[in-house]
Amino acid sequence: xxxxxxxCKKSLLIAGGLAIPLSCLELFDPKRLLAEKDQKGPRxxxxxxxxxxxxxxxxxxxxxxxxxxxYDANVTRTWVERYVVTNDGKTHIDSxxxxxxxxxxxxxxxxxxxxxxxxxxxxxxxxxVPKLCNQCDNPPCVQVCPVGATYQxxxxxxxxxxSWCIGCGxxxxxxxxxxRFFHPVxxxxxxxxFCYHRITKGMQTACVDSCAFGARRVGNLRDPEDPVxxxxxxxxxxxxxxxxxxxxQVFYLGLSKEVK
Amino acid sequence: xxxxxxxxxxEFFTYPNEYIYWTIQIVMYPFMTGLVxxxxxxxxxxxxxxxxxxxxxxxxxxxxxxxxxxVAMLPLLMHxxxxxxxxxxMMTPHFTSAIxxxxxxxxxxxxxxxxxxxxxxxxxxxxTALALKRVEGRTALxxxxxxxxxxxxxxxxxxxxxxxxxxxxxxxxxxxxxxxVACFLHGYAGFIFGSVKANAxxxxxxxxxxxxxxxxxxxxxxxxxxxxxxxxxxxQLARRHRLAHPELPSMEELKSAEAHVxxxxxxxxxxxxVAAITLELLDLIFRGYTxxxxxxxxxxxxxxxxxxxxxVIQYGLGNLVPFVLFMIPGLTIxxxxxxxxxxxxxxxxxxxxxxxxxxxxxxxxxGFMHYVLPIWPDSMETLKEGFFGAMIVAVVPFCIFYxxxxxxxxxxxxx
Lengths: 260, 415
Ligand code: SF4
Ligand code: SF4
Fold this sequence. Notes:
The complex is a heterodimer of chains A (about 260) and B (about 425).
Chain A: H1 4-27, H2 30-37, E1 44-49, H3 58-66, E2 79-86, E3 91-94, E4 108-109, E5 115-116, E6 123-131, H4 140-144, E7 150-152, E8 158-160, H5 170-174, E9 181-182, E10 189-190, H6 196-199, H7 206-210, E11 216-220, H8 227-234, E12 237-238, E13 250-253
Parallel strand pairs in A: 1-13
Antiparallel strand pairs in A: 1-11, 2-3, 2-6, 4-5, 7-8, 9-10, 12-13
Chain B: E1 8-12, H1 24-47, H2 55-79, H3 88-91, H4 98-134, H5 140-152, H6 161-194, H7 207-241, H8 251-290, H9 295-305, H10 307-327, H11 333-355, E2 367-371, H12 380-384, H13 387-407
Antiparallel strand pairs in B: 1-2
Helix pairs in contact in B: 1-2, 1-6, 1-7, 1-11, 1-13, 2-4, 2-7, 2-13, 4-5, 4-6, 6-7, 7-8, 7-11, 8-10, 9-10, 10-11
The structure holds iron/sulfur cluster (SF4) (2 copies).
């Protein structure tokens, strides 16, 4: 009869032995290797011209309708921030309902349902900044997802698998840009995906289509002839919160130091 | 209503999607894992380092650690938006994620504790099974017990002196292997927070160490407290049963054993408390001294908005007062009970201030969010992530401990 000691030893050995070939399946996934090498496809990027944005919020509306984010829910895939810098050196920022209805009030929304009135004479400068997921090249949201429900495609877009997300919220915590939220209907992590279903068919994103002022554009960084790429390569563009090392791929024209 | 809206109040500018997403359950999670790790370390002090005086509490804390183990997962599960998919963390782990690796450490640790318990209680299993076997005409209950204990022996019926010695050696080895795993288990909980670079309060390599130290503190404190409580109950029982069973230990014997164990254990508690507070203060001073970009908003959270939570409750009531209580010579049981309770409050508040305080400010650094703990639930969400959800998590380990104690009596002398 096999002794208990040798039984334990042998079963450990077998379990360990099995683990090695199993881990190879993961290490040598040919599809993944191909995707990593495949540099020919597009690399989607976004260009925001803050000088052109008027804060109408049509993009926010368009996005909500296109991507089935409940219209009245206080979350949104993209939003517009208003910055008002006064001559006492203070910056006042707000984005009521993500600017879904634009900025109907002159006063700045400071929470608790209160508005802060600012006199015209006190204002040094004021401008609008649209925000959306940066489809980071080094996305912390992908890094922290415990089940791999958030992943990055070969063309650079970060997607969430709604059938796989367990709803832990780690990615929401990990994103320095606060773009992620829980979808009120599906109860999984949600965020902007550059309208992946549209751009991969050669269309524009919903927000780009809704913007009457040309403040938003989407492009392919691997195509030197792409007008967006040309701007990014030749003009003075900036990105948000570069210090986190996320390598954001949404580029801004006319970004000001007040922008958070 | 979207997730988080029910309990978040915003002030000034926060990004539109920002809410307090990690609620009281995520406070309970490191608190409970901390208790698991701490209780285990306490039991190992006896098993590995041979601190003889802790013998009375060692077995107790080992079983308690095991009872707490499943509960460490419970808050995570209750917090998930898709709880039914929770098992995917084990089935399809994504190894760059701290939570995924946690699942593996957690199960390894669970197996270590289970096997250690088995070696400790094997003799008891065998003896009980044999005793039941001899009983003629077993009742259904006895038959059930007989089957249970026979299965628990796993076929190892040998209780000769050599076999028991071998058991003892195995316990020692497992306990030694368990210490790093227990520390890792909890260090990892700290790492989950410390590695979130998007959060200015969490982002520090000290986080895992701070978590381990306070985990040991809370584990020891809870063991002392529960030990005192169970001993009280035993004393009352002893008073009642002694007439019928004179072989039971007397009230006085129990009392002196208790006082001795409590005094000894609280010395270790003090030691770990000093380490924990030193590290926390070091972190605080370092942040203020280097004053990077985020310090402005951190300072207003730490010194203004959360002042009462951090300095009054956590450091004052949870650290300073119990410290003084334990330092005054001639420690009484009652004083120890009050002290350990306060220590537990302090450690809980430390978790609270890290988890909730870390989300109290917007990542835009220009606004704040307040967490209003839902007390009376009006939906599944506010039930799960509110006061009652946390209470469930707090009560379950004691129920499990009660059941475990039936199978593995922590107070019975076996070896
Ligand atoms: S912006 Fe946030 S959600 Fe988008 S890819 Fe970067 S880290 Fe992820
Ligand atoms: S919420 Fe979903 S997508 Fe985000 S980290 Fe958790 S499992 Fe991944």
